[in-house]
UniProtKB/TrEMBL annotation:
InterPro entries membership: ATPase_NBD (IPR043129), Gcp-like_dom (IPR000905), T6A_TsaB (IPR022496)
Protein name (Swiss-Prot/TrEMBL): tRNA threonylcarbamoyladenosine biosynthesis protein TsaB
Domain Gcp-like: from-to ranges: 28-171
GO MF assignments: tRNA N(6)-L-threonylcarbamoyladenine synthase activity
CDD domains (alphabetical): ASKHA_NBD_TsaB
Sequence similarity: Belongs to the KAE1 / TsaD family. TsaB subfamily.
UniProt cross-references to Gene3D superfamilies, sorted A to Z: 3.30.420.40
One Pfam family, short name: TsaD
PANTHER family membership: TRNA N6-ADENOSINE THREONYLCARBAMOYLTRANSFERASE, TRNA THREONYLCARBAMOYLADENOSINE BIOSYNTHESIS PROTEIN TSAB
Keywords: Acyltransferase, Transferase
Transferase is among the record's keywords: yes
Length: 228
């Protein structure tokens, strides 16, 4: 099994390659440079592994939520590479990837992932580890104002990941009992781990069916100046 993953949905640009169960990854924090960096990073990993795109079995992409522009870049690059090499694709949540990173680095079993969504909101998801060592979403991913969140009675059992905890620290004080972490951005290596079962279950799809997950709905956009 040879899978390549890429993510450009946040300030970080991340690419990872899985050959069987061995994973190598490149992660860079490079705001507004994703379109310039992602393809050279892909080429670097493939060259080091002495592989071509055509030798891969599939492509994995960060489907969001995150920056609208960043999510579109990631989906577009994944589609372009997949079309060129006739490969199937699979999208993985950026919030889920950060939750998976908390298990990889901290053995966390419960995670609250929060990314700054602008407009005084965060993208939020709560995750719990399953028996296979994979983070599973509890409820839904949502765009929400931090002040609208209901306090968790068991927040101390969770690990906090993502930029939302830094940006909205004051508003999230009622959840500050959650253990902090150094995980701010998703990494493609964790997307590969989450995508592996989908590959084994033949759930990858054709490149033209790749879909982003913006999470924020149309109603939120109508609040912006100049939008009706």
């Amino acid at each position: 099994m040879k899978l390549l993953a890429l993510d450009t949905s946040t300030e970080a640009c991340s690419v990872a390659l899985m050959v069987d169960d061995q994973i190598v990854a490149l992660d860079e924090v490079c705001p507004q440079q994703h379109s310039k960096r992602v393809l050279p990073m892909v080429q670097q990993l493939l060259s080091e592994a002495e592989l071509s795109l055509q030798q891969l079995d599939g492509l994995v992409f960060g489907k969001g939520p995150g920056s609208f522009t960043g999510v579109r870049i990631g989906v577009g690059v994944a589609q372009g590479l997949a079309f060129g090499a006739d490969l199937p694709v699979h999208g993985v949540s950026t919030l889920a990837a950060m939750a998976q990173a908390a298990f990889r680095t901290m053995q966390a079993k419960q995670v609250i992932a929060a990314i700054d969504a602008r407009m005084a909101e965060i993208y939020l998801g709560q995750y719990q580890l399953d028996g296979a060592g994979l983070m599973q979403l509890q409820g839904i991913e949502q765009a929400i104002k931090p002040t609208a969140l209901t306090p968790l009675t068991d927040a101390a059992d969770y690990v906090a990941v993502g930029t939302g905890w830094q940006t909205y620290g004051d508003e999230l004080q009622h959840w500050q009992t959650a253990r902090s972490s150094s995980i701010l951005y998703p990494s493609a290596q964790d997307m590969l781990v989450l995508a592996k079962p989908a590959w084994q279950q033949a759930c990858f799809v054709a490149a033209e069916l790749a879909e982003p997950s913006y999470v924020r709905d149309e109603v939120s956009w109508k609040k912006l100046p100049g939008r009706g």
